[in-house]
Amino acid sequence: MSIPASLQSNLNATASQLTEYFMHFVEQQGIVDKALQQALEYALLNGGKRMRPLLVSLVGELLDVNKKELIPVALAIECIHAYSLVHDDLPAMDDDELRRGNPTCHVKFGEAMAILAGDALQSMAFQILASAKLNPRASLRQHELILALSKAAGPAGMVGGQSIDLSSTNKQISLAQLNQLHALKTGALLKVCVTLPCLLSENITTSEKTVLQQFAEHIGLAFQIQDDILDVTADTQTLGKPQGSDQQANKSTFVSLLGLENAKQELNKHHYLAIQALRSLAYNTEKLETFTDFMVTRTF
Ligand code: GRG
């Protein structure tokens, strides 16, 4: 299943501007160790659906944020996402050999270099946000952008979720605990894709921001549930990772906890609530609704 036609031009524009900004940024750094440069470029540029940058672009468009301001924001988030995947694939974590149908970063460049590439991508994310040339009004919010991303990525966000995930391996956990784990591990970064464009918007009200964040929480959980469903239903070629890999690692998933049918119900619930949140807003949310439908029905 490919991206819906109505989102294709947003995705194409965002993806190409992101690559251009990234390449220019990397060039400016004057990285001495070319092996490190190759590894971090591989992690960021070697495929990926660019769902987070697309979400930033769609929320920005909804709120009439200048497109130029959104690119560094989208790139900073994608750098955090790419670093998290590189570290998640390491032998000490999920020990995966394939990512996006290609060798994982540590398989291609060695474990130590993959750790460093992840570290570099993480610091680059904040450097990109801190050095972004925003318009005078938006630049007043620059520290808030950095603060929100650091919270979402850090111990009370994505890293915290990953840590709970690792410590709950081989343990029975409740649905509430699984929801909390994924709200942090996968959800925090998706939520910040909404929070950052809201910070750049000049007109958004507090209640509209709350509704958009609720929308993001539901798509975050729906995205993870669909990932768990795909893990048991899709073939290896499609996902680029071994089928049932989370089950093999003895991790609780929505499917292992609820069964396939109830996991699908849970997915439908979050899908419905995400759409309801959007429809309660006085904006044209058609594209974000299409994005939501795609996130929950994706097959890759
Ligand atoms: C190592 C600090 C640290 C955190 C890792 C997000 C994460 C935390 C690990 C990823 C594990 C995983 C596969 C979760 C399932 C949902 C998910 C985030 C899938 C990957 O995101 P996509 O599908 O990836 O957007 P692409 O390749 O399209 O960029």
UniProtKB/TrEMBL annotation:
InterPro entries: Isoprenoid_synthase_dom_sf, Polyprenyl_synt, Polyprenyl_synt_CS, Prenyl_diphosphate_synthase. It comes from the Bacteria. The keyword Nucleotide-binding does not apply. One of its GO terms (molecular function) is prenyltransferase activity. Keywords: Isoprene biosynthesis, Magnesium, Metal-binding, Transferase. GO terms for cellular component: cytoplasm. The keyword Lipid biosynthesis does not apply. GO terms for biological process: phospholipid biosynthetic process; terpenoid biosynthetic process. Transmembrane segments: none annotated. Its cofactor is Mg(2+). Pfam families: polyprenyl_synt. Belongs to the FPP/GGPP synthase family. NCBIfam families: FPPsyn. This is Geranyltranstransferase. It comes from Glaciecola punicea ACAM 611.
